[in-house]
Amino acid sequence: MLQTIQIIALIQGIFVLFVLFTNRKDYKKTTFWLLFGSLISVLLYILGDDKNNLFVENTDWFLFDNTLFVTFLFLFFKYYKNEREKFIKSNYLFFLPNIFYLILEVLEIKLPKENFNIEILEVILELTFVIYLVLILHSVFTNKRRIWTTYFVIPIVILLVFSCINDTLKIIGLKELSFFSNQNFNSYLLLIVAFLFYFISFKLLTNNKYILPKNEISKYKNSNLNTKLIEQYKSDLINAMKIDKLYLNGKLSIQDVSEKLNIPKHYISEVLNEHMKTNFQDFINEYRVEEFIKRLKNDQNNQFTLLGIAIDVGFNSKSSFNAIFKKFKGLTPTEFKKNLVQNN
Prior knowledge:
Layout: H1 2-22, H2 29-48, H3 66-82, H4 96-110, H5 116-142, H6 150-171, H7 182-205, H8 227-242, H9 254-261, H10 265-275, H11 280-296, H12 306-312, H13 318-329, H14 333-343
Transmembrane segments: 6-23, 30-48, 60-80, 92-111, 123-141, 148-165, 185-205
InterPro entries: Homeodomain-like_sf, HTH_AraC, Tscrpt_reg_AraC-type_HTH
Domain HTH araC/xylS-type: 227-339
């Protein structure tokens, strides 16, 4: 029965990897390769774990271990959550426990009898992987974000925790929990893995977009702007705000800026949206907010109301001013002024 589950999971896994790899250009690079690595490590575990080796009974193929899957899954979730595009080299350090675990496995095979120190170190390393999984769960439930990995992480955490308990009991000479014995542990884990592949297969076949973050197709992909022009236009836009203070005009439009700087409107939008990660209104309003704060701190403006200063720096109404100020500073203008007075 267990071997049948392994074969089914293996076939499903190969299908999932094939579909993902075929459509890899549709997904964000880092999260794609982390999930891909995670799934490959699961397939290796199905093929060659020492307790459930699919081809050679009781043979340990060192890298075919469930801990590699845990590390990949942890990193996948980490990048899925923060949406970072590029992999940070320092994050390779998260694979150190896997390297140490592999070394211990090799030593365990080479030594003529069981070594107490190696057993202790293995338990410590297993706890590291449990921590990885717990961190995933903590991030999910505190961030109010639910993604499909959660449903598989929870049972894997439970299994690994009880596996650590059993290893600890074994070291100190007590009877292990039979329900979570090594053989049962691997059987349960294979069942979870089989369902994992089934779930992903189903989602891929139904074109579900939540398996992996999709690459965003830019509406400016056919733009004629080159790097030199982009930098020039960025500089012109910033100078128009910092030096010319165009934002003081409460009716300032993108057309006004286009005519003033002699830059086509669609290029202004492209530079702001694509290369400065903002939009026209946020761009000018941020300068208005900073100008408001600068004037608020000036004692010569104490006779003016908050709204009076706001109108003077380009805002058109009290409601829009309050909303925009809170968006950038996290406080209402009144709260900000109160904090300013207290600090002074």
